[in-house]
Please model this.
Amino acid sequence: MPASLSPQERALLPQIQQWIAHHRAALIDDLAQWIAIPSISRADRAAPGAPFGPECAQILQQVLDHAEQAGFKTEQHQGYAGSVIYGRHARDIGLINHLDVVPAGDNWTFPPFALTQHGDFVTGRGVADNKGPGVLNLYLLRLIRDLNIPLHHNLRIIYGLAEETTMADMAWFAENGPVPDYSIVTDGMFPVNHAQKGQLSFTLNVAEAGILADIVAGSASNSVPDFASVRIKRADWHDVSKKLTLLQRVASGTLSVKPEKEGVFTLEARGNGGHAAFPEGTLNATQILLAALIELELVTDRERQLAETLVQLFASPYGKSAGLELEDAESGKLTLNAGVWYSQHAGTLSIDCDIRYPVSWRGEQIVEMLLQLLAATPVTLAPGWRDVAPFFMPASHPVVSLLQQVWNDTTGNDDRPYAMGGVTHSKRLPNAITFGPGYRKTAANTPDFLPEGHGLPHGADETIHLPSLLDALPKYVIALIRLDSYLIEHDFYT
Model:
């Protein structure tokens, strides 16, 4: 494994930087067009050739049109995914990305489906997860072509459309598509991700929930809701308003009441949204709302007991208060998120939840522990829970080591591969390793113009720092050169 950049690699760096400077404005313009399409994956709106709904079909066609206009070959995979290909070789190296996004949610300062630029920052749903990296992939192919960098493999970008929901896009592609022997998934943080926790998606039901059945919060099970509300029909608004001004124990500044008519008003709570797998810095708005219902004495005795049960169940984003405090050395702590609150049947509260569990555990074990916990409560687990098993590659795997060495050589760091709770297409395709282009937060690359808690993937005002994103391009060029050579030199195909 190289200990540093070769003379040829060093000679490429200034050429890459010059190319980036020349193409930066065009990349931003393309990203703005991609962000404008609210491509939320909707299998319930499937149509022939559009298994994830019309908006996902629209964004895929637009991206493939962009690629063809740039002179690349494209392939449509029956609406499940699309490919952009550079090269005329027998085998591919994949670049895996997704064009679907989570719903916008609430509490945005800027319009979610319009690109807003503020200096070196751009804001909009998907700029970080995963349309910004998706545009970067297309420009990576243009860069390699324009600099005439020789490779022995085709580069195949594969754009999926259901990563944020069921990953049915890459499940289909794994069975039917031209699957590369090795792929880089551009949907995570640098450096190299070698382990991803398992993911459980499930629904909890609370029957005869009374006023709690009117709680509305969240837009996706894998997002922490930053807004929650409940309609109150049997209280004096003026009395509640007075109590609210005196309330200190439930962060009264995040609560408000809106009168509708005599005896009817809406109680609203605001928290800090974000990605369910990375709960640091987030605050689930339903915790504030439930605590307020209790403290403001707006619930019956049964409703109070139910509210206290739910507060206890979801008090810790790491499952501690739910008896699910699990951790292993390979991947860290379990996370638990109550993402969507709604009433599908009269009088019943339903909650769509997300658990990311350590790689040394199995989904069935977690479900059994959850059932034992719920047995003593009025909360039930709905049938049809979904398990996406963990992903794990040893840090010593030669391709993991190769990519890690690229990172260390190009940054001067001495980092190691990492594990995470985030789920990527690494779980659906063989030998698909997540490698950037997310970046570590510093004072220089963190926006200072957003409200506290804003700017995160899956949260309000999702934002990226353009120079940090573009800085991934030289890392990917060197990574692809080395991976291309490795697969040939080590007789991978014999």
Q: What stands out?
A: The first helix runs from residue 7 to 35. The chain has two domains: 7-197+390-489, 198-388. The longest strand covers residues 335-345.
